[in-house]
Amino acid sequence: MLLVSAAVFFLLRLAPGDPIYTLLSLQDIGSLSDQQMAELHHRYGLDQPIFIQYLRWLASVVGGNLGWSIHMHQPVAEAIGQRLPVTAELAALALVIAVCAGIPLGIVAAVRRGTIVDVVATALAVGGVSAPNFWLALLLIFLLAFMFPVLPPSGYKPPGEDLLANLRLMILPALTLGAGMMADVMRMMRSSLLEVLGRDYIRTATAKGLSYDQVLVRHALKNALIPVVTVLGLQAGRVLGGAFLIEQIFAIPGLGKLAVDAIFNRDFAVVQGAVLVSSLVYVVVNLLVDVVYSYLDPRIRLS
Amino acid sequence: MDAQRSTRPLTRRHFMLLFGTGLGGLVASACQTAPTAPTTAGGPSTKAPAPSSTQAPQAAPAATAASPTTAQPAAPTRGGELRIALAQANQTMDPHYLESLVDRIASDAVYESLLDYDETGKIIPGLAESWEVGGDGKTITMRLRQGVKFHDGTAFDAAAVKWNFDRILNPDEKTLRRSDLDALTSAAVVDSTTVKLTLLRADVTVLANLTSVPGVYMVSPSAVQQMGKEKFAQNPVGTGPFKFAEWQRGTKMSFTRNDSYWKPDQPYVDRVTFSTIPDSTVMTLNLTSGNVDIIPTIAPKDVSTLKSNKDVRIVEGTGGVWFIWLNMRRPPFDKLANRQAFMHAIDYAAIYNVAYFGMGKRGSGSPFPPESFAFDPSLPPLERDLTKAKQKLAEAGNPNGFSFRVAFAAIYESPQVMQMVQASLAEVGIRMELMQTEASRLNEILLKDRDGAEAWQSGILASRLEPAGYVDFNLVTDSRANFSGWSNAQFDGFLREAVQTFDRDKRQKIYQDAAKLVTQDVPGVYYMFPPRLQATRANVQNYRLDALGKVGFRECWLQKT
Amino acid sequence: MTARQLTQPDLQRKRVPHGTSRGRYIQVLSLLLLRRPKATSSAAMLLLVIVLALSATGIVPFDPVRPDYSAVLQAPSLRHLFGTDELGRDVLVRVLVGGRISLLAGLVPVAIAMTIGSLAGLVAGYAGGRVDSIIMRLADVLLAFPALVLLVAVSAVLGPGLQNGLLAISVIMIPRFARVVRGQTLTLAHQEFVDSARILGATPSRIVLRHVLPNTTSPIIVVATLAAAEAILAEGSLSFLGLGTQPPDPSWGAMISQGFRFLQLAPWITFAPGGAIFLTVLAINFLGDALRDILDPTLRLD
């Protein structure tokens, strides 16, 4: 984590472009004096050597202060606090879509292996992985917002204000984000179920006289889910990455949009904060995955 | 366009900066009548000439009072919510520190300035009922409107005005407005409704800077003192028609009606909401679907679709100017002939017709756009002339052309336009490499790293009341953003002279002469006056095209359907 | 099934001290691939993309870069099969020419990342100890970032442009090669044939290059294929954000990015390049799947 923070910090400072310059419109360039520019640099500590800037930042982070956003005129922690729930909602919805569609599809494909259902489902899955999500987003906008205007093309409304409007706005981005995940979940579900179904204890269960459905539900599914959960955990990173582009396209004020805009604006403190928080989320999600594991497979808890 | 051009000199005659006594009290009636047919008309009639009211004699109380019958048949109705889309998220609501146009637009809801401007760009009373310039232009005495209160209940009076100026001018406060008012030395209370401003030197431009243009709004002293700077920036308190209600950073900000607003019956709507919609296509869709009532920009490409929509009204004018500055410090543009070759090779008509769909106005090389009184209508539009271009290339000693890099940001039509410029230059052998650049880097090339590119493209899209604002930061010798490195003593002299010239006609002449120098020396090519396109839902009444490209929402009402 | 039976012993045979039978390896691999219709069809598809991209201007009689103001924003027609863009350029020819850039994006970063990543993985795995932990920590740092943020940040440092974009993609691809190769090296390093080579007095570099590296080929091929697909998508994303290919050169991502403005007016500008990315990546993914089935039998049991 420390390494990550240092890497981001120095990487960004290598980039040409002065953060103060992003604040300036041509209008302001005309009106600000050199002295005021120097004052601005000083106000944000940009006149210090990079190493000192890093130590200062590190010290303030340890003290619980993520710094101040030059571009947004607000504390970084506050900016992230406002955007994290938005991305969380998007990710959760995408996850729901991925799980609700991916798992049943995977099961059906595995059970009806080799049939047309399997072929279609597998093709859909590989398609989901292969489609660039910015293109998928445009396709969805074009189809569901322009051609058949049933959904708003983009924007964001907080759920607390108008839940329905919020969900309507979130459907397209969640679908876009969920498509790739769904494909992975489906593929993993299919192959792991196939694997489990080939195991001895399944044969034993069948031999015991249990019906195929009973075997499937009682024994096979739970075991087959373990690798699926792993995949979901690994997806956490990908969801964050995907959210960056998708939030950009759908104008959703989430963590991803915050980070990408901040890189473009050289709003260093925000990028650092966002990266810090997203790697934290990554770690937490993977911890959660471990917890779910131990539920699915008691042996893991023992070891 | 022709109609517009013929009426412009007439309307410009009222762009009087240095008088205004006796205008007081007229604003209250003017504000209801300000809505004029041309600015709110939809469809093809949007290019109609300015209304007769603006041709009336100066100050024109009678004319403005008479015009409502012609402009708006219906009486204003109260109530409803006005939803306005903005392309960027708001950053700060402390006007003395604001930097962006969207913050200026939102500030218009909650704050007011001492002076204001009408839709032709003429300066009119705001919180000051009248003003007088005295002492050889070195003092301005302002008489304040009486009975005005800040939203927190404290009185707006001379002491409050002085406090605002003290705050702006105090070097320790480090306000961004200080440089807008650098000609000002101090403000003094004469009596409770009179304030006297003292100037360092006679400077015509100070009046324009006292309007809301830069952001010299009057904030509540007690609110700032109680809340402190940081909190106040998020909880604005002013005298404006709307009171601050809530702000969800990054998405929206809303204001409610100020019931004790000083203009009778105003404002007409109960609530104003600004929401952030960065993409222009999406903004347009939100307008057609009725999710927002006003959008401040439409892309030219969307106009034809919108014009067929009965629920939408398009407001059209021109707004600012696009240009490519050429770095004269180093080859290839150190040679005038190469710059001229560049100028002659560009296909201006194609840019106007293809990228702007024939809207706006073709560039004439003048840095002053048509909406400024400094614009010279007699200057013909730039034309492509390949023969001349080749001739100039030969003259410069590089008959087969040359190569250079241009830095630009991928905003608006720029990627498209720059590819068109690139293609037209290629026909005479000039190879232009496109460098799509982010804002921070673009400004760095402009201000510091001038070897980063040989040409620099951008636009001044927020119009200015003072013509100097288009040129004084980039074309004057030693000015901060002088990317070209142009230094023309005559031009510098013209600009100095204009600022101290009190007669508007003389000023106009000076600026027009200055513009001709730009087309001669070609420190840059001002290739296009883009259209300013805004749109409202058809039930939004009394919308005016703001002279400076903000959103003229303050006096709108919603027609019940 | 027959393919499977052929696979394991054949590739097991690879784990012999001298990795000299390269020709035989490729032969067996191609043979195995040819037996899978999914793999052959996707390989054919890829070949088609390559041929089309290389012969672009030969097939379509339009200039991919020069504007034609008399044909702006035209819908698909017999003359312009995929329509024209905002500057009147034929979308089809741009998609074909753009294919070169995307294919380049699939090849170059993967080649760079493969070289650096594999070497790093070999060194880490074979040397072990502190070297290993330093190299792998660095790889972890790169992996901990959301890929796109890293991509955008690296491009911000290098400046926009195709070359820099490809370099940025290479950087983010390095750790996955390093990881796989390191893992493989760790298991190989203690196998008999390596030990015997060591006893015979081979230098570490000779052992690593002659004995260990050849035996990591299979996983590298699998990772490289999947990475190629991702690299094409990444170039698309970068160009979409304006950091990759610069106008007027067409790359699929850049075309989508520029066409986004005209989505409502002229959706064909974005559909064609999007479809091209989709099909190409799909083909590579299918190929990658097939390769994985063959080369890494533990993954699938069917």
Main structural class of chain A: mainly alpha
Characterize the overall form of chain B.
globular
| Tally of discrete structural domains of chain A | 2
Q: Strand count, sense and closure of the main sheet of chain A?
A: 2 strands, antiparallel
Instruction: Give the structural class of chain B.
Output: alpha+beta
Greatest chain-chain interface? A-B, 45 and 52 residues
User: How far apart are the termini of chain B?
Assistant: 34 Å
Task: Estimate the helix proportion of chain A, in percent.
Answer: over 70%
The low-pLDDT segments of chain A are: none
| Mean pLDDT across residues of chain A | 80
Characterize the structure shown.
The complex is a heterotrimer of chains A (303), B (561) and C (302). Chain A is mainly alpha-helical and 303 residues long. Chain A has helices at residues 2-14, 19-22, 26-31, 34-43, 50-62, 76-111, 116-130, 133-147, 163-197, 200-207, 212-250, 255-265, 268-296, 298-302; strands at residues 68-69, 74-75. In chain B, strands 14-18-13-17-15-16 form a 6-stranded mixed beta sheet, sandwiched between helices. Chain B is globular, with a radius of gyration of 24 Å. By secondary structure, chain C is mainly α. In chain C, 71% of the residues lie in helices and 0% in strands. Chain C contains 13 helices and no strands. Chain C starts with a helix and ends in a 7-residue tail after the last helix. At the A-B interface, helix 2, helix 3, helix 4, helix 6 and helix 12 of A face helix 11 and helix 17 of B.
